[in-house]
Design brief:
Layout lengths: L1 E7 L6 H8 L8 E7 L4 H10 L4 E5 H9 L4 E8 L4 E7 L14 E4 L5 H12 L8 E4 L3 H9 L5 E5 H9 L3 E8 L5 E6 H23 L7 H9 L3 H10 L9 H13 L17
Parallel strand pairs: 1-2, 1-3, 6-7, 6-8
Antiparallel strand pairs: 3-10, 4-10, 5-8, 5-9
Helix pairs in contact: 1-7, 3-10, 8-9
Amino acid sequence: MKSIRIGGVPEHFNLPWHLCIENNEFNQEEINVIWKDFPDGTGAMNRALRSGEIDAAVILTEGITRDIINGNQAKIVQTYIGSPLVWGIHVAADSEYKNLADLKNTTAAISREGSGSHLMAYVNAQNNGWNIKDLKFKIVTDVDGAINALKNDKAQYFMWEHFTTKPLVDNHTFRLISDCPTPWPCFVIAVRDEVLKYNSDRVQKMLEILNHKTRSFKNIPEIDKILAERYGQKLEDIRNWLKITSWSSSQLNANELDEVQKKLLQLNLITKKVPDSEILYSL
C-alpha cells in the first residue's frame, strides 16, 4: 500500500478527509492517506510542501498561488471549498478599538509571513482605502499566540476564520469587529510536482474518493451535531456555516486564478503574473 502525506488545518472544513480515513475508504483502494494537522495554517504548509515533509495540502488559494509563483514546486489540482472564506477581524475583548476605522495604522497579528492572516490583512486594508505600505505585522504563529499578543497589546487585531474563532468571541477573549470574505474560492488542494510526476494516478484516485464524500457530506445524518461536537462549536453556528459553505471537485478556473493573481499583484505581494500552466495541473 502506497502512502500520501497530506496537511491541512484542524478545522471543520476538513472533516470529509477524516471520515474517509476513519472509514478506511482510502485503504480499500490501496492508498494510505496520512493526515497531518497544521494549526499554524498556510504559511507552515507551504514550507512543508517545499521541504517534502508532506506530499499535498488543503490550503488557502491565495497563499499557495503566491508561493508557487515564488518558487514552490507544486501545483493546484482542484478546488476543495468553492465558497469564500469568511475572515473575522478580531480585537481583544476589552480593546479600545470599536470599528474598522479605529484599526488603521495599528499592528495585525499574523501566524507567519505568507499565511492567510497575512495576505488577507492586505485585502482588508485595500477594501478600506488604507495605504498598504503602512501595514504593520506581529508574527504570532497560531491562535494562542494571537490571544497573547492582543491581550498584551503587542498587536491590535487578528484575522482568522469567523466560525473557528467564534468560541473565543463567545467567551470574551476576542471581540468581533467585522468580517472580510475572500473574493475567490477559499481552499484548494495542492500537490508537489514530484508526486504528480511519479504518482498522479494515486492522487487522482484519492481525490475521487474524497470528492464522492464531499458531494454527499451535507446529507450525512446529524452532520451538524457531529461537527459541533468534534470542533467545539455551537450547533447554531455550525448550521449557519453549513449554509454558506460549498465543497467543490472542479479545478480552479482561469477567471478565478486571474482574479487571485491580479489582486496579489495589485497588493505588491507578487512581482509578476504567470501562465495558468505554472500553477494549475489537470489530472
